[in-house]
């Protein structure tokens, strides 16, 4: 990221919104469909429940999150300049989910696009949105993390189906000339050699859909959990520690670590490396599981609305996902 010494404008979060579907899949439900048990899922992952969207698509999740944002921040949709939707479960290849959201909310003057970076999607999209603001041409950018993971999860694969859920959350970015406020720094990375461990092979230009791709379950998410676990811990912790060092941040300076919610053990390992105690880590994995691009903004919205996240709090956001993609972001919370 461009050093904040050279920038004249920062992007700050001035509004938030979220949506999770009503249907709850608890661990007991999985006991009824696969060979697993509540104790294994809780101790290996930290997850108790996740949500599932029964009717509709990712654009419906995203639209409801943005409608919540619009309502709670008195935003006129016509003022929105750009909508970025981070997702790996778009309604379809094209048009982009962002276009569908734009139409649903009547954002008549907006442009928008989807961003595919899996579980790091929200961080990548937040940096993209921040760059639009920092450039000076855009005043209101909506960044959404939304995924309907239930549409690509194989509910006979016990290694993976217990991990994921559906949800969406959104933030509004606006400019500030106070360089001590808003998004201050980011370190984002990708490494395509990770494609073997975490992917969905079917449906794209490599393997267009055929009867064979369906029979071979190529339209489902595949993950080698053990392999991903190791690199996720290292990746998330390394960039987060680097972020602290390059901004002279001690662990006591940080109000919250806001980690991607994939596995409580990955979250704990990352916090330990940063010297951050559990009480300063945002965690809601027990309620929602891994909602991919939505995990980080869902945490932000819930902690803010619960009164735990306060204006001026210094946050480190950290994520790891398919690609591999990973990164860390340093932000000062702007909302009262
Ligand atoms: N219920 C019961 N047992 C299960 C199970 C389930 N739902 N899923 C797997 N198991 C079994 C395995 O088959 C294995 O049995 P075996 O030893 O007889 O082969 C055993 O539990 C241990 O499996 P293992 O893979 O060692 O478990 P783990 O401790 O690595 O946990 C994950 C598995 C998936 C929870 C963990 O690896 C993980 O979270 N990985 C990373 C996920 C992630 O971060 N993804 C990032 C995308 S953002």
Describe this structure as you would to a colleague.
This protein has helices at 27-33, 38-45, 58-72, 97-105, 121-134, 211-215, 225-246, 264-274, 285-288, 295-305, and strands at residues 10-19, 23-26, 49-52, 82-86, 111-115, 141-148, 166-176, 182-190, 198-199, 222-223, 256-259, 314-321, 325-332. The longest helix is centred in the last third of the chain and has 22 residues, at 225-246. The protein contains 10 helices and 13 strands. It starts with 9 loop residues before the first strand and ends with a strand. It is 32% helix and 24% strand. The strands form 4 sheets. Strands 1-7-6-4-5 form a 5-stranded mixed β-sheet, with helices on both faces. A 4-stranded mixed β-sheet has the order 8-13-12-11, with helices on both faces. It folds into 2 domains: 10-180, Thiolase/Chalcone synthase (Peroxisomal Thiolase, Chain A, domain 1, 3-Layer(aba) Sandwich); 183-332, Thiolase/Chalcone synthase (Peroxisomal Thiolase, Chain A, domain 1), CATH 3.40.47.10. It is an alpha/beta fold and 336 residues long. Strand 4, helix 4 and strand 5 (111-115) form a beta-alpha-beta unit. Coenzyme A binds next to helix 2, helix 7 and strand 12.
């Amino acid at each position: 990221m461009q050093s904040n010494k050279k920038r004249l404008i920062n992007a700050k979060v001035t509004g938030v919104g979220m949506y999770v579907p009503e249907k709850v899949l608890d661990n007991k439900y999985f006991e009824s469909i696969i060979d697993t048990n509540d104790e294994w899922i809780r101790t290996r992952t930290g997850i108790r429940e996740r949500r599932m969207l029964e009717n509709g698509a990712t654009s419906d999740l995203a639209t409801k999150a943005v409608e919540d944002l619009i309502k709670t921040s008195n935003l006129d949709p016509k003022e929105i300049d750009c909508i970025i939707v981070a997702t790996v479960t778009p309604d379809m290849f094209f048009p982009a989910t962002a276009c569908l959201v734009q139409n649903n909310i009547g954002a008549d003057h907006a442009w928008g696009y989807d961003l595919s970076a899996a579980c790091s999607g929200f961080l990548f999209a937040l940096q993209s949105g921040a760059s639009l603001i920092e450039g000076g041409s855009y005043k209101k950018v909506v960044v959404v993390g939304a995924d309907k993971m239930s549409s690509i999860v194989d509910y006979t694969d016990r290694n993976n189906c217990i991990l994921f859920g559906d949800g969406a959350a959104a933030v509004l970015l606006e400019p500030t000339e106070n360089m001590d406020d808003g998004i201050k720094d980011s370190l984002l990375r990708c490494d395509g050699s990770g494609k073997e461990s975490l992917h969905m092979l079917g449906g794209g230009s490599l393997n267009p859909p055929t009867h064979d791709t369906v029979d071979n379950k190529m339209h489902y998410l595949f993950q080698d959990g053990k392999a991903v676990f190791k690199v996720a811990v290292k990746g998330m912790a390394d960039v987060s520690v680097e972020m602290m060092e390059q901004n002279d941040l001690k662990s006591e300076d940080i109000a919250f670590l806001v980690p991607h919610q994939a596995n409580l053990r990955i979250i704990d390992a990352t916090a330990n490396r940063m010297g951050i105690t559990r009480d300063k880590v945002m965690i809601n994995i027990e309620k929602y599981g891994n909602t991919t691009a939505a995990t980080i903004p869902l945490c932000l919205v819930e902690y803010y609305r619960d009164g735990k996240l306060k204006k001026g709090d210094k946050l480190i956001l950290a994520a790891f996902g398919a690609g591999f993609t990973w990164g860390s972001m340093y932000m000062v919370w702007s909302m009262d």
